[in-house]
Design a protein that fits this description.
mainly alpha; 4 strands; Cytochrome Bc1 Complex, Chain D, domain 2; globular
Amino acid sequence: MRRKLIVALAAVGLAVAVAGTAAAVEAVKVPSQTWSFGGLFGTFDRGALLRGLQVYRGVCQGCHSLKLVAFRNLQEIGLTEDQVKKIAAEYEVTDGPNDQGEMFKRKGNPSDRFVPPFPNEKAARAANNGAYPPDLSVMVKARDGGADYLYALMTGYREPPAGMQVPEGMQYNAYFPGHQIAMPSPLVEDGVEYADKTRATVAQMARDVTTFLAWAAEPELEARKRMGVKVLLFILVLTGMLYAVKRKIWSDVH
């Protein structure tokens, strides 16, 4: 009985210690950024969305999937139907089965979703030293700090502080919980050549791809905000009308 009690107390102590360590690891404050899509009237910057798509395709998609976004959705950020068809055709999609019961490869169509870089999780881990690159479809919604966190993460690679040992295969990042991350810095100066000739600094690319991923996570954001404004206006008008009716009804009561 005493042995069981000691084991139970030890388990509780370990759980508390782990919880405390996890809380300490998670307590990384990221700088607040100003985003075009923030606030009640915020909208997505179309130029940033198109540049962010370039960064995703040129840098991120080698490791990270975007499996909830269909190619045809890209028309919402400013691409034409022909441009979407051209982008989709650059991907090879597994389809089937055919009449012989076999899977086959074909060029992508606008109705297809972005093709993941790896066929399965084990292949992804094998190619990334055991780390599993997460899908980015809803990453902005999935992480505390949202867009601010993603931007900070991509611009937060530093030399480790004096005296801190970073294990082989890990990188120091000022804003990653625990400050040690398996992903090497994905962005380098002039890492992509923007179609609109914007200078591709690390900060610019981080801001653009974060904007694109914010849209991917919540493409209905602008419509939702427009509806919210309409609802607020309706409530204000209705309140005014009800107040006027109340004044009229009770005008002869003293």
